[in-house]
Amino acid sequence: MRYLLGLLFLLNVISPAFADESTEAQALLQKIQTASKKTDYVGIFVFQHEDQLISSRITHRDQAGDEWEKIEKLDGHRREYIRHNEEITSYQPDTKILRIEKRQAQDMFPAVLAFNGAHLSDYYRFRLTDTARVAGEECRMVIIEPKDKLRYGYRLCAATSNYLMLLAQTTDLNNQVLEQIAFTSLMFGRINDSDLKPSFSNTSDWKTMRGAVAVSTESGWAVKAMPAGFKKIREVRRLINSNVEGQPHKQQSDLHEVLQLVFSDGLATISVFVEPLSGEHHPGIVQKGATTISGSQLGNFWITVVGEVPAAAIQLLSDSIEYKAK
Questions:
Q1: For residue 35, what are the domain limits?
Q2: What is the tens place of the pLDDT at every residue in 257-311?
Q3: Do residues 182 and 235 share a domain?
Q4: I want to staple 290 with a disulfide (CB 3.0 to 4.6 A). Which of 168, 170, 235, 310 is the partner?
């Protein structure tokens, strides 16, 4: 009886402590998301994906809700992306293409991918660790561990000064890092208009393309089974082309429509792309860092499922996609 009473006492003491830490960690995620929009800064971040390292320079400014951002790729083909609130203009000098499209979600570093705090603790465990240093800045690390084998874990480090995320790692079921993205240099402070202008002064002979997107809710495509907690957050039809980097750009007539269904558990996302079957396709599942990609044929359509989740989760969705005629 004394042992039982002692155990109950410990549970009553310890459980609220874990609950408080989980609540504090999730509150930190919300602060990270806000800081990604409200902080003025310029920095260089590096994305490590398998054996590749890709570096980019990012400049961000917010003035009373008017948000500007410029991202410059520093490796490989030269690319620049200028975002003003929800409109993104991408510059591709090698193919002389200027592409304009609307941002569909705040899901780029240093934001938290698809963050939605509701019910996250049903599927993940949260804990805080000691402070660390990234790019010369102190940051607080939050560890996010999955409660099942159908999603990955995360390690995120938020600056103690303003909560901007300085490092994000995705970890597998064995707690090994699959991929990571982190600042290597960073400066906070006032950003001038000139810092946000594109590097290309004359684009009069460039081809302008608009990434048309239309909201779609009655497509008839559905997923019958998916990991617990995942819900459809978006369904859109978009125009894309299959242009390969480094090749001459294709004509507007080569654009074709693709249906995209996006599912999320509040942290991870899975996208299902549906397009008419054409050309050569190779069915199967491949893993690239933390990203799993599945391709399969269903009737006269080609289905591609992409997500930062284990292969078992992608297979679950891929096997349960169906079309119901309206």
A1: 2-196
A2: 889 999 999 899 999 999 999 888 889 999 999 999 999 999 999 999 999 999 9
A3: no
A4: 170
